[in-house]
């Protein structure tokens, strides 16, 4: 009797769990003409990016391509192949949506540059893959 009760409870529990499970919904289609709220391009001086001291220049625009001025731009860089190597700091506004920060890339290889843009309720973060020679 106990064995039959135990089996019945397992079957009932399996049915309840199956009924509670949701199906995956397809991702919403991206509307044509829509874009990200912020676009970030990175240039370096010297170019191409080389190991050692270098200037990162960030060109930051809104979804319509207009420069974002007067923002607070925090930048951090982490070596993706060697944890513990990184840098961070506040970029200086240069005008016209351009911000710069001096960095020392102590090792060549793959880096992840994280850029945080904050201005008047805008709080945007983007991770950018970056290669140093």
Judged by helices, strands and strand pairing, the structural class is: mainly beta
Number of helices: 1
**SS elements, strand count:** 8
CATH topology: the name is: Immunoglobulin-like
Specify the overall morphology: globular
Domain tally: 1
Beta-strand share of residues: over 45%
End-to-end distance: 73 Å
Q: Helix proportion of residues, in percent?
A: 10-25%
Identify the CATH homologous superfamily.
Immunoglobulins
* CATH top level label: Mainly Beta
Q: Please give the largest β-sheet.
A: 4 strands, antiparallel
* Secondary-structure element string: HEEEEEEEE
Weakly predicted, low-confidence segments:
9-34
Average pLDDT rating: 81
The largest sheet has its strands arranged as 1-2-6-5
Taking all Cα atoms into account, the compactness measure Rg is 24 Å
Q: Architecture, CATH level 2?
A: Sandwich
Question: Overview of this structure, please?
Answer:
There is one protein chain. With 133 residues, this protein is mainly β. The protein has one domain: Immunoglobulins (Immunoglobulin-like). 14% of the residues lie in helices and 50% in strands. The protein is built from one helix and eight strands, in the order H-E-E-E-E-E-E-E-E. The strands form two sheets. Strands 1-2-6-5 form a four-stranded antiparallel β-sheet, with no helix packed on it. The chain has a four-stranded antiparallel β-sheet with strand order 4-3-7-8, with no helix packed on it. Strand 1 and strand 2 (52-62) form a beta hairpin. The longest helix has 19 residues, at 2-20. The chain is globular, with a radius of gyration of 24 Å. Mean pLDDT is 81; it is low at 9-34.
